[in-house]
Write a structure and sequence with these properties.
Chains A, B: It is a multi-pass membrane protein. The structure is a homodimer of 763-residue chains. Chain A has 763 residues and is an all-alpha fold. Chain A contains 31 helices and four strands.
Chain lengths: 763, 763
């Protein structure tokens, strides 16, 4: 590719970016789009926006950039949780290291490469981009030590920055742990693999075991049921409720929508929902007490066990309970809003098979994906394209800009479209794996997408770009450095266009929320559905973290070899910094949090990138027959790996478990201040299996009730709040022992009531 | 190699074996050798052997074989510990699986191979051995399904047997844990990485931390000191003691040696030693109380912390103590006699570097070892030998049996000699790694020797035997199955001779204890030294476990491809079963035990062997162009790996930690029976750093004292007994606060006393 082609591509993308950013700055001011661009704010901060028509609304502005840059880390932590801070730190790290790398490589190495071998330079715009890579440096060049020194500086500074970030995030994680609000998950252990006995009920077995072996700290427990009889009744009730909800949306609730964004059910009689709510509570209570349900008891496979102190829960989760490691498997429970209920009842014995199966599935997907990628790679090599599609030859020869477009832009776009399908598939795999929490599922999907991206964007492009149909790369690891050394500088051009299309344009479309905007439009004006006040997406870490890390990988591997990519990359990271901060603050809502567990993934990827860069450089120095530079690279690889090992020893354990000292200190403090009783009392209603937040939006019913305040703290879900009502204690005597038949009867009567009401209103 | 050459080799080895076994059965009856052949019995069972001269003593007999076969597993467990049982089970497993494999392959596959391709057979003795391998089966043979079925049967039965053994050993491990005698190690945690403070002494820091965070279960602690000032004083005292001991050996103690084997100091005044003993106790007490020693305090890096219950110690060892994972690293302590004191003071921060350094060292050794092995491999290929050493050509051409000897026997012997140097080097590496217990050190050395053996005996021979100087094997893993498939059948001959020399002859020399016998002879008649009653070797698991597992690997890989090896291997395992049982019962003494941790190593190696066999068979079926057989092998590989994963989930955790349930039950039982106070009292003297068993044999002094009984239980070391004297409590008030100067003075006066006594006696 020539420089002019690159400039064409860059021009298109810069144009698109400016267009999108301007559009965004206008669209965000339109009240109609407020749900799309300020989902989190509306849900959590009760922001009200005025709907006055003023000209200012249609003028592009940069105020949002200033706002995004001004907000501090504490604000992000408060608004979007620790994971958002980690993501922000990944961007900060990238900006820092690539600023240095760009400075070093563009001014130090780029001239060296340019004036390397072929001194007869043509006019710069029609110069091939390969002339800026290390490929242009002569064999046995005496300037290769500059590349080696640059590699040392970049690796060293990257390690120092990584360590600082790692320590910072570990400290934040500890602070998160010891934060003021007591998390119910700290006191709770999720026990799986409860052995079945013929005599006793599951609940009794759990009670007996923990009373016997953890008597001093055991509080009580709550059995998790397989989605069975009760769930069916619940689903029936929900369907009836939804029908009614839709109906009121259409007929009654027209006036009070749009600007207040507060309630959607004003005017409708709320009695029936109050009843439903109580009913659902009753169901849960039945599940907890289960004095008469024999059927469900057979299907119990897990239980939440609550302990008096955090330390006791930690201990119970860390030790091996019995001599059969498949029984009584205890792990610290996820936060209530993080629990992935439909996986909880999975038998623990299945999990290892599921894990292996999804692993195999992901690997198969990784390799099946090669087919479209190889095809796309063919597109970027114009002569091959002309061979395979002869009718194109005429067009391509005539119109010069068409050629530029096809080589510079099209490959990345097609690849991009294919890549959009990957994260949902990986998410599905992660669901099948059987994680107990949503955050774990997302993190697992993130890892899968990362491996997938690195393999299919980086390796396959590098290796099949030069030697098409060479899928036997893995079979000769010894030759890999040399092959990579040959291929990476050649593929740098493709990576630059990839940064332009996937990076820059991807960020603009992320900012624009194109999908959200279109969906919102269709819902509102085509399908004429009511606004879904409930659905506010959470941040897609599983797509964004791999994306940013992949760009880091591209940056590191190309830095010394083909430094022309670095300015483009730096622009991407700066833009990403602004855009993602804005999105985290305004658009996405944080319902669950891994507590910074994305950082070890980022750390490992950066280390991998560094080592890969060093290995490739080793190969390049070998090809250039520079034994000194190659010899100096080997200790650098060893040092980098040692640094990684040190971090694994020094900081990684903090991301795997919690330190006992801090937990004990917190327990003591709670005990002294007398807060512990309140915490214990709240544990009773912390986890409720059946009133699922997403399916039955209970807080709406509260809004209808009018007087209860809407939750303003970010960490607490609405479903939980309804459960936490202290009046509805589990030990309520009158609700015990209701049989299934009566529940079913109650639901039937509600459904009947709803039908009656609907008919009465529509007639 | 021809069959006749194999028979020559087999003949020599059978002759040697019979000779050695007969010699052993005679030598073992000689009273002079009783220390060599019955070390354990004398040390632990107080057996006394009559020294009468009878003719029976010089007639070879087989009684010992019967005795070795008759003893039950319980007897081995009682006599030689759980590790011996594990080793025994490895042999039993090998006998079982290879009996089946031999039956199946010799009668099913051998004829198929023999009548495979070339039907024009010459006279059997001059037939090449290659004709019995799968190499003789034609391409696209319709009989390859027999090989595939045999592979299925062997893999399936091996997995079933493995699982049975694994479960059995896990059960034994639990029984070992819950055995009647309370182990002090169960109540003790070894804490490393104690943070240094300027204000407080190390002991106070430990006390403060555990009183604060483990107040309910913390008992007391004992600081471990770096070998420094006190140790120097101790060494001086020991030297003086040894001088005197040697002197008394020579002059006084001549009459009461030989047959009673009880004491070596009768007649000498024992007052001075009593004094020394007390002195040593004082030193220890000083170390514990350290009220005035400021110097040593700086060097404290570890401490034994004692807990009230086993469960509390387990909990303390499993959890992360503080937010710095490098500080307060707690692990369950090893048994007192298992502690490797000189590694305890190593700073915990160093350990990970040490581990990496020794790993690199071992890998370097593995690859440097290639040089002699390649040379030896050249020896077995006669034409190459003649090329490199032309003067041999004349000799080798003339004498036919010389050729047979060189090809059939010499390579293995030379290899054998080189291999003798490896275990001590690996043991040194394992020591440098910094393990805290002797058993851990041996286990680590066992792993290293195993990797080394498998690489250097199996892979290098297989791969460099066919393609000499091909060290780039690792660089093409895809071609590995095919290469192995070509090479393994060809190298089967070498492996058969290896079984004969290293296996059979090795067992006989193990039984004979050639080194022990010669050393004993030299000590007694050449150097005229006193018999060393103390030195009874412990079983060299780090050399014998890898040896047996290597033969298993050879058996599995050759079973289907070259079944002629199986009968020889079976003889080896049978012989090994008898010999090792005999040695475990009579010769070696068990001072420390890993508690069955050798089994996971064995399990993993067998799984590796099975998968390797399957991969090689896959390659062979590929070479023979049998897609059906190859296709059926792939699910077998997957099933074997799944089985391994199941075992890792189901049984391996029991080998990593102890189940809380059993520990709590034991704690309760002790509490109810009131035994717990006695246990706590004994903990005070369980671990003593300075009176080292090997250097100062304190029990001798007790024997001099006369009335104290000699320890008969196998698990208790002598050093520990002297420490356990309840009168010598740590809280003895008069011994507190003795300054270093006074200690030094005391030692000087003892040394002076000894000199005086020596002079008086010699004059």
């Amino acid at each position: 590719m020539k420089i002019s082609a690159l400039l064409t591509s860059a021009g298109i993308n810069i144009g698109l970016c400016v267009l999108f950013l301007s559009l965004y700055s206008v669209l965000r001011k339109q009240p109609a789009n407020v749900r799309v661009y300020f989902g989190r704010r509306i849900a959590e901060e009760n922001t009200r926006l005025r709907g006055a028509f003023i000209l200012e609304r249609f003028v592009p502005s940069t105020g949002w950039i200033v706002k995004a840059l001004q907000c501090t880390e504490e604000e992000i932590l408060a608004a979007a949780g620790l994971d958002a801070v980690v993501f922000n730190r990944i961007l900060v790290f990238s900006i820092r290291i690539f600023s240095l790398a760009a400075l070093l490589c563009v001014f130090g190495i780029l001239p060296l490469n340019y004036f390397g071998q072929y001194m007869h330079h043509v006019h710069i715009p029609s110069e091939s981009l390969d002339i800026f890579t290390i490929g242009n440096v002569g064999v046995k060049s005496r300037w290769l030590w500059v590349h080696c020194v640059a590699l040392y500086i970049i690796s060293g500074v990257a390690c120092i920055l990584l360590y600082i970030e790692y320590r910072h995030i570990a400290r934040l994680r500890l602070l998160h742990l010891t934060s003021a609000t007591p998390h119910p998950s700290h006191f709770t252990v999720l026990v799986r693999g409860i052995p079945k006995t013929a005599k006793e009920s599951c609940s009794d077995v759990v009670d007996d075991f923990f009373t016997k072996y953890h008597s001093s700290s055991y509080l009580f427990h709550q059995v998790v049921y397989k989605v069975g009889k009760i769930q069916k009744i619940m689903t029936g009730a929900k369907k009836a409720y939804k029908k009614f909800k839709h109906f009121t949306d259409e007929t009654v609730d027209q006036g009070c929508r749009s600007l207040t964004y507060r309630c959607c059910l004003c005017g409708a009689s709320s009695n029936s929902f109050k009843l439903l709510n109580t009913e659902c509570e009753q169901n849960r209570r039945k599940a907890d007490n289960e004095s008469s349900l024999k059927l469900d008891d057979e299907e119990c496979t897990a239980a939440f066990v609550f302990f008096k102190t955090r330390y006791a829960a930690l201990v119970a989760s860390e030790i091996l309970q019995t001599s059969n490691p498949m029984n009584w498997v205890a792990n610290l429970a996820p936060e209530p809003e993080d629990v992935y209920w439909s996986n909880l009842w999975l038998p623990h014995k299945q999990l290892w098979i599921r894990r292996i199966a999804t692993l195999i599935g992901s690997i198969v997907l990784m390799f099946l994906f090669l087919i479209p990628v190889t095809f796309i790679q063919g597109l970027s090599q114009l002569d091959q394209l002309q061979q395979s599609l002869p009718f194109l030859r005429g067009i391509l020869k005539k119109k010069y800009y068409m050629t530029q477009l096809v080589t510079g832009y099209l490959p990345s776009v097609v690849l991009q479209i294919f890549l959009y399908a990957v994260p949902p598939i990986m998410m599905l795999f992660s669901t099948l794996e059987g994680p107990t929490s949503r955050s774990e599922r997302k993190r697992s999907a993130c890892c899968k997408v990362l491996y997938f991206t690195v393999w299919n964007i980086f390796f396959v492009n590098v290796l099949s770009g030069t030697v098409i149909s060479q899928l036997t790369v893995l079979s000769s690891p010894k030759n890999l450095p040399v092959q990579l050394a040959r291929a990476v500088p050649l593929q740098a051009t493709f990576f630059i266009t990839y940064v332009l299309t996937s990076g820059w344009a991807g960020l603009s479309s992320e900012l624009m929320q194109l999908f959200g905007l279109i969906w919102h439009f269709i819902r509102k004006y085509v399908l004429r559905m009511k606004e879904d006040t409930e659905f506010i997406p959470s941040f897609p870490y599983h797509t964004e973290v791999p994306k940013v890390l992949l760009f880091g990988l591209l940056g590191f591997t190309c830095s010394v070899l083909a430094p022309l990519i670095l300015p483009f990359l730096l622009v991407y990271f700066f833009l990403g910094y602004v855009v993602y901060r804005n999105q985290l603050l305004n658009v996405y809502r944080t319902r669950y949090d891994t507590g910074g567990l994305y950082w070890p993934i980022a750390h490992n990827t950066v280390i991998f990138s560094l080592v890969l860069t060093q290995v490739i450089c080793l190969g390049v120095f070998g090809l250039k027959e520079s034994p000194i530079a190659a010899g100096f690279t080997i200790p650098l690889i060893i040092l980098t790996l040692l640094f990684n090992q040190y971090c694994r020893n020094r900081l990684l354990p903090l991301f795997r478990t919690s330190p006992a000292q801090d937990l004990i200190d917190m327990d003591r403090e709670d005990e002294l201040s007398g807060r512990i009783d309140e915490i214990h009392r709240r544990l009773h209603s912390a986890y409720c299996q059946f009133p699922d937040t997403e399916d039955v939006p209970l807080e709406k019913i509260k809004i209808v009730g009018g007087d209860e305040e809407q939750g303003s703290s970010s960490g607490e879900s609405t479903g939980k709040e309804s459960c936490e009502d202290p009046k509805r204690d589990l030990s309520h005597p009158t609700l015990k022992g209701l049989p299934v038949s009566r529940l079913r009867h109650a639901v039937r009567s509600i459904t009947f009531l709803i039908r009656l009401q609907k008919r009465g209103l529509s007639e």
